Amino acid sequence: MPKAGICSPNPLTAPPRVLYYNKDAFKKAGLDPEQPPKTWQELADYTAKLRAAGMKCGYASGWQGWIQLENFSAWNGLPFASKNNGFDGTDAVLEFNKPEQVKHIALLEEMNKKGDFSYVGRKDESTEKFYNGDCAMTTAFLRFARQYPPVCQI
User: Fold this and answer.
1) What's 72's domain CATH number?
2) Residue 94 contacts residue 86 (beta carbons within 8 Å)
3) What are the CA-CA distances from residue 116 to residues 11, 23, 67, 89, 143 (Å)?
4) 113 in a domain, yes or no?
5) Distance of alpha carbon 46 from alpha carbon 41, whole angstroms
6) What pLDDT sits at residue 13?
7) CB-based contact 79:90 (threshold 8 Å)
8) Rounded to whole angstroms, how far apart are CA atoms 121 and 74?
9) pLDDT tens track for 79-135
10) Most-buried pick from 52, 58, 64, 143 (CB within 10 A)?
């Protein structure tokens, strides 16, 4: 947090990340298209069903460090770094190697080994795979919905 009386601009944006999912693929896999997964374990279970129903890719995510570590930590109330997540000093230490984050990455690794999670690139490549119908689910920025309005209903 900024100190009193000191201007502390943050040059980074914080667009919300959204889970996008293909309702038609959900129907084909016997999943309720109105009930997206609510936990990471549910997401893993859904991807297996989606792949069994013929999807090439159950789930893909771009910006893995940001979404799968930094955002995962924030969503779960876990620090990403010491010193108030780096706001209280340049000597902050990254703390994303804690049991919860390791367990999350291990789940993604397990999904990857089964073919249910696909690494398609470190940026926005997963949104293209979702748009093309190759991936049933992706985690991406909210702006994706504006870039691909024919497939995104919010």
Assistant:
1) 3.40.190.10
2) no
3) 35, 17, 18, 40, 25
4) yes
5) 9
6) 54
7) no
8) 23
9) 888 898 888 999 999 888 889 999 999 999 999 999 888 877 677 777 888 888 889
10) 58
Parent domain of 124:
17-27+39-147
Sign for the CA dihedral angle at 25, 139, 48, 120 comes to positive
Which residues fall within 8 angstroms of residue 111, CB to CB, at 6 or more apart? 44, 47, 58, 59, 117
Please give the tally of structural domains in the chain.
1
Give the pLDDT band (50/70/90) at residue 137. Answer: very high
**Burial code of 52-68, b = ≥16 C-beta within 10 A, e = fewer?**
ebebebbbbbbbbeebb
pTM of the predicted protein model: 0.76
